[in-house]
Predict the structure of Helix-turn-helix domain-containing protein.
Amino acid sequence: MVQQADRSAATTKAILDAARALFARHGYAEVSIDQIAQRAGYAKGAFYHHFNSKQEVFEQVLDGIQAQLAVLVAKRAQSAPAAPLPLALARNIFDYLEGATHKSVRQILLIDGPMVLGWKRWREIDDKHFADVVRAGVISLMPDDAGAAQVASATRLMLGAITEAALSSGMSEDPATLIREHCASFELLLTGLQGAGASSPRRPRALDAASKGKGSRAS
């Protein structure tokens, strides 16, 4: 039984490794199940014994990439020199963006991922690996009296901003330069977030002005 489980695990890994290499090089649409099985060194039947579809393989490949990126960011954060918290968190985002736009994963994660899996599922996988980390960073920045609603809102906005930075960098002809620009902006945003927070959310002055304008037009 142990040997059978080991063989099954080895077959699964070989198929996932083969699929990842092919998806990264050719893109999801250009890769067939026959090609994946052939590269893995198995018959097509072995593929269907372990997976139901090419999309299922793709999802597992993408999930594995996100898991590896999460480990990479955590390891670099542990070994990084001490820095003010906004800078340290911006550096973590830099490490993620750099990894996400690497040529070995960019096609899978940032180009094919949202289209193949759909935006909702793609976001769910991202949240699975990074939502708690981003939330912890937000909590560490905001004052102790920041309410749960403020923390939740700030976390979701940060996740959205990081997602947009990853997608735009992944589509760029010069991702390295764009990543540096994004992370400089993230440092400013995080510095501002560090000074925010109160027992109840403060109403932005722009909203106050808009409300007053509506009142004056209605009168």
Remarks:
- Confidence is low (pLDDT under 50) at residues 197-207.
- DSSP finds ten helices and no strands in the chain.
- Residues 37 and 45 are 9 Å apart (CA to CA).
- The radius of gyration is 22 Å.
